[in-house]
Design goal:
With 331 residues, the chain is of the alpha/beta class. It is built from ten helices and nine strands. 35% of the residues are buried.
């Protein structure tokens, strides 16, 4: 059965060339989405074809995304013991456990030693306590010293963490975005606090893209469907593509990442498909490439060079051979 995925954008962990065969619109979209994105239905291909396929894309039509799931939160611990715990308001906007902070420290060491952090121009984060703690802990600046007056990414002891304040110096900007939140509704751990509260906790995170101070998306009696999460995720990836940054970190949630990415990789080898859309472990990072095949981007190439400067004769030899042969066919 063909799988429906969007044409803009496409995520790749390996080069492949998807082949669209028809266009459709999905039946289910969240009420807030007035105009559903155009989608494509792709033809099935054999594993051998997928394994052998390659694709070339202009560099200026590609972005690198570093996708991260938050570290262990208290809701993960309690939910593992008893799934009914996810319905408890005791886990409202759950923060990281001490083990979760250890996971943050380990991932921070990895992004430093692997040089991942050097290329990141922007960090996008879901506006929940556990994701913001993870994001600033992994990608933020070093601990504050005397004399530093810039606002911190996180104040000290946020969420009773016992952690010192985290600097906003020498790190990329951080923006909170609602579109990459976890499954909405029913589970109090996925309900956010007011933006006013968060600004006091995370002074240097930019919350300007969030329109409502209170959480109007989470409903106590309505759980977002998987299809709605997919649609929201595809809109999020298209929004990412239209940004100017070429290398972006996204700190989000297991359910959101799994469902949003499940539409991608259907024309890949199964191993590559599994790299893209299996569930994330706590504080797991995966790097992928997003490409613009639909001309939705408008960036000009910055590394290309036009050639023929200064101007001169440059007739390629194969074209000259065609003219000499007189039959218009390349030799």
């Amino acid at each position: 059965m063909p799988v429906v995925i969007t044409h803009d954008p496409i995520l790749l962990n390996s080069a492949f060339v998807p082949t669209p065969i028809s266009q459709h619109r999905p039946a289910i979209f969240p009420p807030s989405q007035r105009s559903p994105p155009r989608i494509l239905r792709f033809s099935p291909r054999s594993d051998m074809d997928a394994a052998a396929s390659q694709g070339l894309y202009p560099l200026h039509r590609c972005k690198t995304l570093h996708l991260v799931r938050h570290a262990q939160g208290f809701h993960n611990v309690e939910g593992d013991k008893n799934p009914d715990a996810y319905l408890s308001y005791d886990l409202f906007d759950a923060n990281l456990t001490p083990l979760g902070w250890s996971q943050v420290d380990n991932l921070r060491k990895h992004v430093k030693t692997s040089d991942v952090s050097k290329g990141i121009e922007l960090v996008i984060v879901s506006p929940l306590l556990r994701t913001m703690q993870t994001a600033v802990g992994v990608f933020g600046g070093e601990a504050y010293t005397d004399g530093i007056t810039a606002p911190p990414l996180m104040n000290d002891n946020v969420g009773d963490s016992g952690r010192p304040a985290i600097s906003s110096l020498n790190c990329p900007p951080f923006i909170a975005v609602e579109q990459c939140r976890e499954h909405l509704g029913v589970h109090p751990c996925d309900k956010r606090r007011s933006i006013t509260e968060y600004r006091n906790m995370f002074p240097a995170i930019d919350f300007s893209l969030i329109e409502s101070d209170e959480d109007i998306l989470w409903k106590p009696d309505i759980r977002e469907t998987n299809e709605e999460v997919v649609a929201r995720g595809l809109k999020f990836f298209e929004w990412l593509w239209k940004r100017k940054e070429k290398e972006i970190a996204v700190v989000s949630h297991s359910g959101f990442l799994f469902h949003a990415l499940s539409s991608f990789g259907n024309d890949c080898h199964p191993t590559i498909k599994s790299e893209i859309c299996t569930h994330y472990a706590n504080c797991e990072l995966r790097s992928v490439v997003i490409i613009d095949r639909g001309m939705i981007g408008s960036d000009n190439p910055t590394t290309n060079y036009p050639g023929k400067i200064p101007a001169g004769l440059d007739l390629p030899s194969d074209i000259a051979d065609e003219k000499l042969s007189g039959n218009g066919e390349a030799n």
